[in-house]
Known about the structure:
Layout: H1 3-30, E1 40-46, E2 49-52, E3 55-58, E4 61-68, H2 72-102, E5 105-108, E6 118-122, H3 128-144, H4 149-208, H5 217-233, E7 237-240, E8 248-253, E9 259-264, E10 268-269, E11 272-274, E12 279-281, E13 286-288, H6 293-328, H7 371-379, H8 396-436, H9 440-476
Antiparallel strand pairs: 1-4, 2-3, 5-6, 7-8, 8-9, 9-10, 11-12, 12-13
Helix pairs in contact: 1-9, 2-4, 2-5, 2-6, 2-8, 3-4, 3-7, 3-8, 4-5, 4-6, 5-6, 6-7, 6-8
Amino acid sequence: xxxxxxxxxxxxxxxxxQTQGVNTxxxxxxxxxxxxxxxxxxxxxxxxxxxxxxGPQSMGVQVLETTQIRDLLLDKQILRETSxxxxxxxEEEALRWLQTNxxxxxxxxxxxxxxxxxxxxxxxxxxxxxxLQDFFNAFHGLSANPTSVSERQSVFQxxxxxxxxxxxxxxxxxxxxxxxxxxxxxxTNVVNGILESIRSLNEQIVRIEISHPGSALDLRDKRQAxxxxxxxxxxxxxxxxxxxxxxxxxxxxGPGGASVMLVDxxxxxxxxxxxxxxxxxxxxxxPLELTGxxxxxxxxxxxxxxxxAISDFDRLSAQLVATVNSAxxxxxxxxxxFDPAGTTAVGFALNLGLDALSIRSTxxxxxxxxEIALAVARAGERIHSTGAGDAIDGTLGDFxxxxxxxxxxxxxxxxxxxxxxxxxxxLLEGRRDSISGVSLDEEMADLLRFQRAFQASAxxxxxxxxxxxxxxxxxxx
Length: 477
């Protein structure tokens, strides 16, 4: 359409374009505090030119597209680093609980008399270390006064405390293992909910973008947020599906680096499960080999540091039973001090029938003899060797201190990994914010630009209206 009517239509198109620009700038500013939002940009372009009896006439300006400002490579890097951070945090949290349940930490100092340079065991007043020391000290007291009833009562009391400490620690570690299992199962349920949400978002995006490809920007933001939420729990690979626009597939690593599909666009979702030892996907139970996310971190801590601590406390208990019983009953007459079957921390116990009055300081009838009490007291200083068939290496006290020290070292290393990973994550998120984040200054500038353009177009519209009025008035006359 030529002439004033054509100018009127092209100006109306310009008003619509500037209005969309104003709306987009306002939307960006409204989402300035939304971490899942990526800023949007309106791209304006020429609407084309038509031939009229008066010559070529421009059709004005129009909105070509509204796009998100995103760096897809950076988004993938953030997913990967989020998984690593999730794993490190989960492992650190599990190790912190492990140290709490042990109830002891090792202070390092200049005194090299203890293994690993440990100078003291703190919190020992209620821990295994102090109970071990008090137990052998009680036998030292009995060896110095072998006929004393009070010394026998002290030995029995300290032995009972030692049993209680080992039982308590063993039970706490077993309960911690069960708690970690429950946490893993709970998080797998969360994973399955997120996977279904991603499939649903794929479906919604496809439905909206059938006629306008790439237009479901807010849904794409939600999907990216779900992917990042999922990556905190497990490491994933995300890829677009070339022959299905708007859809993505999510997969995880299986044995040998094979890819196990979790979300196939809008078609299917494979449920993730945990059988107590490994993660499985789908009805066929395809194994998953997760290396990132809180699921992997929790499982690593459970099967690594926690299981090692449980095993070491069992070894300590078994060696304590063997060493003390050997010293207390040197001729193997069946007069054991500790229950020979109590070779775990949970099962560690005094021998059936043992009480304060039945505790022996000697195997002879000679008055003042103390060879048994002295042998048990010195058993705490005996250096054991796994090469010689013992359950541990070093003395009982050294082995325990080494155990506590190792857990402390593992916790410190995990904390360092978390700190390093947080720095990387912060750097990447800062870079993404500079690209995709909303800048109020930029949006205000765009808002003013679109507003001025709208005002100019409105003035042109008013001028055309006045000219049309003159034409119509002239025709009437």
